[in-house]
Amino acid sequence: MRHAMPLTPLQKTLWAAAMLAAAGFAGLTWSGAPGASGPSNVAQDTFRPEFRLEDAAGRVVTSDDFRGRYLLVFFGFTNCPDVCPTTLIEVAQVMDDLGSDAAQVQPIFLSVDPARDAGMGLAEYTAAFHPSILGLAGSPEATQAAAESFKVFFAREDDAAAPGGYGMAHASALYLVGPEGDWLRQYDYGTPAAEILADLQARLQGHLP
Amino acid sequence: MKLSISALLAFTLCAGVVQADPIRQGNLEVDGAWARASIGASRPGGAYFTVRNLGNEADRLIGLSSPVSAMPMLHETTVSEEGVSRMAHVEAPEIPAGGALVLEPGGMHLMLMELTGPLEEGGTFPLTLIFETAGEVTIEVPVLSIRATGPEE
Ligand SMILES: [Cu+2]
Protein backbone atom coordinates (compact mmCIF):
# COMPACT_ATOMS: atom_id res chain seq x y z
CA MET A 1 0.00 0.00 0.00
CA ARG A 2 1.39 3.34 -1.00
CA HIS A 3 0.23 6.56 0.51
CA ALA A 4 1.44 10.04 -0.09
CA MET A 5 0.16 10.77 3.38
CA PRO A 6 -0.46 8.46 6.31
CA LEU A 7 -4.07 7.52 6.95
CA THR A 8 -5.79 8.94 9.99
CA PRO A 9 -6.96 6.45 12.63
CA LEU A 10 -10.56 6.97 11.44
CA GLN A 11 -9.57 6.16 7.88
CA LYS A 12 -7.63 3.11 9.07
CA THR A 13 -10.72 1.90 10.90
CA LEU A 14 -12.83 2.44 7.81
CA TRP A 15 -10.44 0.55 5.64
CA ALA A 16 -10.31 -2.32 8.06
CA ALA A 17 -14.10 -2.38 7.98
CA ALA A 18 -14.17 -2.21 4.19
CA MET A 19 -11.76 -5.12 3.95
CA LEU A 20 -13.89 -7.19 6.28
CA ALA A 21 -16.85 -6.47 4.01
CA ALA A 22 -14.83 -7.42 0.96
CA ALA A 23 -14.00 -10.70 2.64
CA GLY A 24 -17.71 -11.37 2.82
CA PHE A 25 -18.14 -10.71 6.51
CA ALA A 26 -21.81 -11.57 6.89
CA GLY A 27 -24.21 -9.82 9.19
CA LEU A 28 -22.50 -6.46 9.15
CA THR A 29 -24.93 -3.64 8.74
CA TRP A 30 -23.58 -0.61 7.04
CA SER A 31 -26.36 1.85 7.58
CA GLY A 32 -24.59 3.36 10.54
CA ALA A 33 -21.06 2.99 9.27
CA PRO A 34 -19.47 6.24 8.23
CA GLY A 35 -17.69 6.33 4.91
CA ALA A 36 -14.63 8.39 4.21
CA SER A 37 -15.34 10.11 0.96
CA GLY A 38 -12.16 12.10 1.17
CA PRO A 39 -10.84 15.11 2.97
CA SER A 40 -12.66 18.39 2.75
CA ASN A 41 -11.41 21.22 0.64
CA VAL A 42 -8.38 22.07 2.70
CA ALA A 43 -5.77 23.66 0.49
CA GLN A 44 -2.74 22.55 2.49
CA ASP A 45 -3.90 18.94 2.52
CA THR A 46 -2.03 18.01 -0.64
CA PHE A 47 -1.33 14.49 -1.76
CA ARG A 48 -0.89 12.68 -5.04
CA PRO A 49 -3.43 10.00 -5.79
CA GLU A 50 -2.05 7.14 -7.85
CA PHE A 51 -3.61 4.33 -9.80
CA ARG A 52 -2.58 1.56 -12.13
CA LEU A 53 -5.60 0.05 -13.88
CA GLU A 54 -6.74 -1.13 -17.28
CA ASP A 55 -8.94 0.44 -19.92
CA ALA A 56 -11.65 -1.53 -21.72
CA ALA A 57 -9.12 -2.76 -24.29
CA GLY A 58 -6.87 -4.14 -21.56
CA ARG A 59 -4.17 -1.48 -21.87
CA VAL A 60 -2.48 -0.50 -18.62
CA VAL A 61 -3.28 3.08 -17.66
CA THR A 62 -1.55 4.84 -14.77
CA SER A 63 -1.93 8.20 -13.08
CA ASP A 64 1.45 9.23 -14.52
CA ASP A 65 0.02 9.05 -18.05
CA PHE A 66 -1.97 12.22 -17.47
CA ARG A 67 0.63 14.69 -16.21
CA GLY A 68 0.08 18.07 -17.79
CA ARG A 69 -3.69 17.65 -17.79
CA TYR A 70 -6.42 17.87 -15.21
CA LEU A 71 -8.13 14.65 -14.19
CA LEU A 72 -11.79 14.54 -13.26
CA VAL A 73 -12.26 11.19 -11.51
CA PHE A 74 -15.50 9.47 -10.55
CA PHE A 75 -15.74 6.14 -8.73
CA GLY A 76 -18.80 4.13 -9.74
CA PHE A 77 -20.21 0.98 -11.26
CA THR A 78 -22.26 0.45 -14.38
CA ASN A 79 -25.15 -1.41 -12.72
CA CYS A 80 -26.06 1.86 -11.05
CA PRO A 81 -28.92 3.50 -12.97
CA ASP A 82 -29.32 6.65 -10.89
CA VAL A 83 -26.32 8.26 -9.16
CA CYS A 84 -23.74 7.18 -11.74
CA PRO A 85 -25.63 8.43 -14.82
CA THR A 86 -26.50 11.65 -13.02
CA THR A 87 -22.84 12.39 -12.39
CA LEU A 88 -21.68 11.21 -15.82
CA ILE A 89 -24.32 13.46 -17.43
CA GLU A 90 -22.85 16.41 -15.52
CA VAL A 91 -19.34 15.46 -16.57
CA ALA A 92 -20.54 15.20 -20.19
CA GLN A 93 -22.09 18.67 -19.94
CA VAL A 94 -18.87 20.10 -18.49
CA MET A 95 -16.81 18.53 -21.30
CA ASP A 96 -19.17 19.92 -23.96
CA ASP A 97 -19.09 23.38 -22.39
CA LEU A 98 -15.30 23.47 -22.02
CA GLY A 99 -15.08 23.71 -25.79
CA SER A 100 -11.47 23.96 -26.95
CA ASP A 101 -10.25 23.65 -23.34
CA ALA A 102 -11.67 20.13 -23.15
CA ALA A 103 -8.35 18.67 -24.31
CA GLN A 104 -6.80 19.80 -21.02
CA VAL A 105 -9.26 17.79 -18.91
CA GLN A 106 -9.48 14.00 -18.84
CA PRO A 107 -12.63 12.58 -17.24
CA ILE A 108 -12.21 9.09 -15.76
CA PHE A 109 -14.85 6.60 -14.64
CA LEU A 110 -13.06 4.32 -12.20
CA SER A 111 -15.01 1.11 -11.67
CA VAL A 112 -15.45 -0.10 -8.10
CA ASP A 113 -17.07 -3.26 -9.51
CA PRO A 114 -14.28 -4.13 -11.96
CA ALA A 115 -14.91 -7.83 -12.55
CA ARG A 116 -18.54 -7.28 -13.55
CA ASP A 117 -17.94 -4.00 -15.41
CA ALA A 118 -15.00 -5.27 -17.46
CA GLY A 119 -17.20 -8.02 -18.86
CA MET A 120 -20.07 -5.67 -19.70
CA GLY A 121 -18.61 -3.24 -22.21
CA LEU A 122 -17.19 -0.47 -20.07
CA ALA A 123 -16.11 1.63 -23.06
CA GLU A 124 -19.56 1.40 -24.61
CA TYR A 125 -21.05 2.56 -21.32
CA THR A 126 -18.81 5.60 -20.83
CA ALA A 127 -19.00 6.59 -24.51
CA ALA A 128 -22.80 6.66 -24.33
CA PHE A 129 -22.46 9.63 -21.98
CA HIS A 130 -19.47 11.32 -23.60
CA PRO A 131 -16.72 10.03 -25.90
CA SER A 132 -14.04 11.71 -23.81
CA ILE A 133 -14.80 9.71 -20.65
CA LEU A 134 -12.26 6.96 -20.05
CA GLY A 135 -13.54 3.89 -18.23
CA LEU A 136 -10.97 2.07 -16.10
CA ALA A 137 -11.21 -1.26 -14.32
CA GLY A 138 -8.50 -3.28 -12.67
CA SER A 139 -7.93 -6.17 -10.36
CA PRO A 140 -9.66 -6.00 -6.97
CA GLU A 141 -6.29 -5.22 -5.38
CA ALA A 142 -5.48 -2.42 -7.84
CA THR A 143 -8.97 -0.98 -7.40
CA GLN A 144 -8.60 -1.03 -3.63
CA ALA A 145 -5.19 0.62 -3.91
CA ALA A 146 -6.56 3.34 -6.20
CA ALA A 147 -9.43 4.09 -3.82
CA GLU A 148 -7.07 4.23 -0.86
CA SER A 149 -4.78 6.52 -2.77
CA PHE A 150 -7.70 8.89 -3.41
CA LYS A 151 -8.82 8.33 0.20
CA VAL A 152 -12.27 7.28 -0.93
CA PHE A 153 -14.56 4.59 0.39
CA PHE A 154 -16.38 1.82 -1.43
CA ALA A 155 -17.77 -1.51 -0.33
CA ARG A 156 -19.65 -4.37 -1.87
CA GLU A 157 -22.97 -4.94 -0.09
CA ASP A 158 -25.07 -8.06 -0.52
CA ASP A 159 -28.62 -7.09 -1.45
CA ALA A 160 -31.31 -9.38 -2.82
CA ALA A 161 -32.99 -6.32 -4.36
CA ALA A 162 -29.94 -5.50 -6.50
CA PRO A 163 -28.96 -6.97 -9.86
CA GLY A 164 -26.78 -10.01 -9.35
CA GLY A 165 -27.57 -9.96 -5.62
CA TYR A 166 -25.21 -7.16 -4.66
CA GLY A 167 -24.75 -3.44 -4.91
CA MET A 168 -21.81 -1.16 -4.36
CA ALA A 169 -21.78 1.60 -1.80
CA HIS A 170 -19.36 4.17 -3.09
CA ALA A 171 -18.12 7.71 -2.69
CA SER A 172 -20.29 9.83 -4.95
CA ALA A 173 -18.13 12.92 -5.40
CA LEU A 174 -15.98 13.91 -8.37
CA TYR A 175 -12.28 14.35 -7.66
CA LEU A 176 -10.04 16.84 -9.37
CA VAL A 177 -6.35 16.09 -9.85
CA GLY A 178 -4.05 18.80 -11.17
CA PRO A 179 -1.52 18.73 -14.02
CA GLU A 180 1.27 17.92 -11.55
CA GLY A 181 -0.70 15.03 -10.11
CA ASP A 182 -1.80 16.78 -6.93
CA TRP A 183 -5.24 16.18 -5.48
CA LEU A 184 -6.93 19.59 -5.76
CA ARG A 185 -10.51 19.23 -4.54
CA GLN A 186 -13.71 17.30 -4.72
CA TYR A 187 -17.04 18.35 -6.19
CA ASP A 188 -19.75 16.86 -4.00
CA TYR A 189 -22.53 14.82 -5.56
CA GLY A 190 -25.11 17.15 -7.07
CA THR A 191 -22.73 20.05 -7.74
CA PRO A 192 -24.24 21.70 -10.84
CA ALA A 193 -22.26 21.29 -14.06
CA ALA A 194 -22.05 25.08 -14.38
CA GLU A 195 -20.23 25.33 -11.05
CA ILE A 196 -17.74 22.63 -11.99
CA LEU A 197 -17.22 24.33 -15.34
CA ALA A 198 -16.57 27.72 -13.75
CA ASP A 199 -14.08 26.21 -11.30
CA LEU A 200 -12.22 24.39 -14.08
CA GLN A 201 -12.15 27.49 -16.28
CA ALA A 202 -10.71 29.56 -13.44
CA ARG A 203 -7.93 26.99 -13.08
CA LEU A 204 -7.29 26.77 -16.81
CA GLN A 205 -6.98 30.55 -16.94
CA GLY A 206 -4.50 30.47 -14.09
CA HIS A 207 -6.75 32.10 -11.47
CA LEU A 208 -6.67 28.96 -9.34
CA PRO A 209 -4.06 26.19 -9.03
CA MET B 1 -59.52 3.00 -46.76
CA LYS B 2 -57.08 0.60 -45.22
CA LEU B 3 -54.67 1.46 -42.45
CA SER B 4 -51.50 -0.52 -42.74
CA ILE B 5 -50.05 -2.22 -39.68
CA SER B 6 -47.01 0.02 -39.77
CA ALA B 7 -49.13 3.16 -39.91
CA LEU B 8 -51.07 1.91 -36.92
CA LEU B 9 -47.83 1.16 -35.12
CA ALA B 10 -46.43 4.59 -35.92
CA PHE B 11 -49.64 6.11 -34.59
CA THR B 12 -49.45 4.27 -31.27
CA LEU B 13 -45.78 5.14 -30.88
CA CYS B 14 -46.53 8.82 -31.44
CA ALA B 15 -49.51 8.67 -29.10
CA GLY B 16 -47.17 7.36 -26.45
CA VAL B 17 -44.50 9.96 -26.99
CA VAL B 18 -46.80 12.95 -26.89
CA GLN B 19 -48.62 11.67 -23.82
CA ALA B 20 -48.41 14.63 -21.51
CA ASP B 21 -51.70 14.69 -19.67
CA PRO B 22 -51.80 13.13 -16.24
CA ILE B 23 -53.54 9.75 -16.06
CA ARG B 24 -56.30 9.60 -13.48
CA GLN B 25 -57.08 6.45 -11.53
CA GLY B 26 -59.45 6.77 -8.61
CA ASN B 27 -58.11 9.58 -6.46
CA LEU B 28 -54.63 9.29 -7.94
CA GLU B 29 -52.99 11.08 -10.82
CA VAL B 30 -49.87 9.69 -12.49
CA ASP B 31 -47.74 12.20 -14.35
CA GLY B 32 -44.32 13.02 -15.72
CA ALA B 33 -43.19 9.48 -16.51
CA TRP B 34 -39.91 8.98 -18.36
CA ALA B 35 -37.12 6.47 -18.62
CA ARG B 36 -33.49 6.93 -19.55
CA ALA B 37 -32.34 5.05 -22.62
CA SER B 38 -30.36 1.95 -21.67
CA ILE B 39 -27.11 0.73 -23.14
CA GLY B 40 -28.08 -2.71 -24.32
CA ALA B 41 -30.16 -4.89 -22.03
CA SER B 42 -27.58 -6.32 -19.64
CA ARG B 43 -27.68 -3.46 -17.14
CA PRO B 44 -30.73 -2.21 -15.26
CA GLY B 45 -32.70 0.70 -16.65
CA GLY B 46 -34.00 3.63 -14.63
CA ALA B 47 -37.40 5.33 -14.85
CA TYR B 48 -39.20 8.07 -12.97
CA PHE B 49 -42.77 9.30 -12.46
CA THR B 50 -44.96 11.22 -10.02
CA VAL B 51 -48.17 10.03 -8.35
CA ARG B 52 -50.36 12.69 -6.77
CA ASN B 53 -53.08 11.82 -4.30
CA LEU B 54 -56.08 14.12 -4.73
CA GLY B 55 -58.15 12.23 -2.15
CA ASN B 56 -58.54 12.42 1.60
CA GLU B 57 -56.99 9.07 2.35
CA ALA B 58 -53.49 7.76 1.90
CA ASP B 59 -52.88 5.08 -0.71
CA ARG B 60 -49.96 2.79 -1.32
CA LEU B 61 -48.08 1.59 -4.40
CA ILE B 62 -48.09 -2.16 -3.81
CA GLY B 63 -47.11 -3.59 -7.18
CA LEU B 64 -45.34 -2.89 -10.47
CA SER B 65 -45.08 -4.72 -13.74
CA SER B 66 -43.80 -4.05 -17.22
CA PRO B 67 -43.05 -6.26 -20.21
CA VAL B 68 -39.60 -4.66 -20.47
CA SER B 69 -38.38 -5.88 -17.08
CA ALA B 70 -38.58 -9.17 -15.26
CA MET B 71 -37.71 -7.44 -12.00
CA PRO B 72 -39.03 -3.90 -11.65
CA MET B 73 -38.52 -2.42 -8.22
CA LEU B 74 -38.60 0.92 -6.45
CA HIS B 75 -35.23 1.97 -5.11
CA GLU B 76 -34.14 4.95 -3.11
CA THR B 77 -30.73 6.49 -3.51
CA THR B 78 -29.24 7.86 -0.35
CA VAL B 79 -26.05 9.85 -0.04
CA SER B 80 -24.60 9.86 3.46
CA GLU B 81 -23.11 12.91 5.11
CA GLU B 82 -19.70 11.57 4.09
CA GLY B 83 -20.82 11.39 0.46
CA VAL B 84 -21.22 7.62 0.21
CA SER B 85 -24.12 6.64 -2.04
CA ARG B 86 -26.11 3.45 -1.96
CA MET B 87 -29.48 2.17 -3.17
CA ALA B 88 -32.14 0.49 -1.08
CA HIS B 89 -35.39 -1.23 -1.98
CA VAL B 90 -38.52 0.73 -1.06
CA GLU B 91 -41.49 -1.50 -0.37
CA ALA B 92 -45.05 -0.28 -0.82
CA PRO B 93 -44.42 3.48 -0.49
CA GLU B 94 -47.28 5.61 0.76
CA ILE B 95 -48.91 8.34 -1.28
CA PRO B 96 -50.16 10.64 1.47
CA ALA B 97 -53.59 12.29 1.21
CA GLY B 98 -53.11 15.54 -0.66
CA GLY B 99 -49.46 14.66 -1.19
CA ALA B 100 -47.37 12.93 -3.82
CA LEU B 101 -44.92 10.14 -4.42
CA VAL B 102 -42.14 11.67 -6.50
CA LEU B 103 -39.51 9.66 -8.32
CA GLU B 104 -36.60 11.75 -9.59
CA PRO B 105 -32.85 11.41 -10.15
CA GLY B 106 -30.93 11.30 -6.90
CA GLY B 107 -34.05 10.31 -4.94
CA MET B 108 -36.36 7.43 -5.68
CA HIS B 109 -36.18 5.60 -8.99
CA LEU B 110 -37.90 2.72 -10.66
CA MET B 111 -35.11 0.22 -11.20
CA LEU B 112 -35.89 -1.93 -14.23
CA MET B 113 -33.80 -5.02 -13.67
CA GLU B 114 -33.48 -7.98 -16.01
CA LEU B 115 -34.48 -5.98 -19.07
CA THR B 116 -36.09 -8.05 -21.81
CA GLY B 117 -34.58 -5.70 -24.41
CA PRO B 118 -32.83 -2.35 -24.66
CA LEU B 119 -34.78 0.80 -23.80
CA GLU B 120 -34.36 2.79 -26.99
CA GLU B 121 -34.56 6.55 -27.13
CA GLY B 122 -37.76 7.69 -28.84
CA GLY B 123 -39.71 4.57 -27.93
CA THR B 124 -42.21 3.94 -25.18
CA PHE B 125 -43.15 1.01 -23.00
CA PRO B 126 -46.17 0.19 -20.82
CA LEU B 127 -45.83 0.22 -17.06
CA THR B 128 -48.55 -1.05 -14.77
CA LEU B 129 -48.82 0.41 -11.30
CA ILE B 130 -50.94 -1.35 -8.69
CA PHE B 131 -52.28 0.73 -5.84
CA GLU B 132 -53.82 -0.62 -2.65
CA THR B 133 -56.98 1.47 -2.91
CA ALA B 134 -57.07 3.02 -6.37
CA GLY B 135 -56.36 -0.26 -8.12
CA GLU B 136 -54.40 -0.83 -11.28
CA VAL B 137 -53.38 1.65 -13.95
CA THR B 138 -51.14 1.24 -16.99
CA ILE B 139 -49.17 4.18 -18.33
CA GLU B 140 -46.91 4.57 -21.36
CA VAL B 141 -43.39 5.60 -20.41
CA PRO B 142 -41.43 7.57 -23.03
CA VAL B 143 -37.76 6.65 -23.33
CA LEU B 144 -35.60 9.77 -23.44
CA SER B 145 -31.91 10.32 -24.16
CA ILE B 146 -29.31 8.69 -21.95
CA ARG B 147 -28.38 12.26 -20.99
CA ALA B 148 -31.94 13.22 -19.98
CA THR B 149 -32.38 14.50 -16.44
CA GLY B 150 -36.15 14.98 -16.31
CA PRO B 151 -39.42 14.43 -18.18
CA GLU B 152 -40.00 16.17 -21.50
CA GLU B 153 -41.71 19.52 -21.22
CU1 LIG C 1 -31.61 1.11 -8.06
From TrEMBL, chain B:
SUPFAM superfamilies (UniProt xref): DR1885-like metal-binding protein
Signal among keywords: yes
Keyword flag Secreted: no
Keywords carried by this UniProt record: Signal
One Pfam family here: PCuAC
Region forming the signal peptide: 1-20
Protein's UniProt name: Copper chaperone PCu(A)C
Organism of derivation: Rubellimicrobium aerolatum
